[in-house]
TrEMBL record:
Protein's name according to its UniProt entry: Mth938 domain-containing protein
Organism (species): Cavia porcellus (Guinea pig)
Top-level taxon: Eukaryota
InterPro entries from the UniProt entry: AAMDC (IPR034096), MTH938-like_sf (IPR036748), NDUFAF3/AAMDC (IPR007523)
Keyword Cytoplasm: yes
Keywords recorded for this protein, A-Z: Cytoplasm
Positions of transmembrane segments: none
Entry's family note: Belongs to the AAMDC family.
Role: May play a role in preadipocyte differentiation and adipogenesis.
Length: 122
């Protein structure tokens, strides 16, 4: 299964190939995507993305996981989350969301097993 392309991104809205849903924040992986509901793990802008937020995507067998920190990079990514992924042999890219989407789509177009978690507002 290939990683779906992120078809569009604007403030508060993301569309992913193969899904009819418009996401605010989303998780994507080879063969799928879903809304990223921060309430599931109690995530807030600070301390930010927790290992529990990326665990689901990491378990899909991704080689690289791209984290979009928001349009203004308000969402933090603590070292513990990066370490969690690297300890599983996953390459981690932490970027501003517009750049993260470009990076994710480029990796997906190369046929890599790439996943991502993206925050589409601040």
């Amino acid at each position: 299964m290939s990683s779906p392309e992120i078809a569009s991104l604007s403030w508060g809205q993301m569309k992913v190939q193969g899904s009819t849903v418009t996401y605010k924040d989303c998780k994507v992986w080879p063969g799928g995507s879903r809304a990223w509901d921060w309430r599931e793990t109690g995530t807030e802008h600070s301390p930010g993305v927790q290992p529990a937020d990326v665990k689901e995507v990491a378990e899909k067998g991704v080689q690289t996981l791209v984290i979009g920190r928001g349009m203004n990079e308000a969402l933090k990514v603590p070292p513990s989350t990066v370490e969690y992924l690297r300890n599983q042999g996953i390459d981690v890219r932490v970027l501003q969301t517009e750049q993260a989407v470009k990076e994710y789509n480029a990796l997906a177009a190369q046929g890599l097993r790439v996943g991502g978690v993206f925050h589409s507002t601040c």
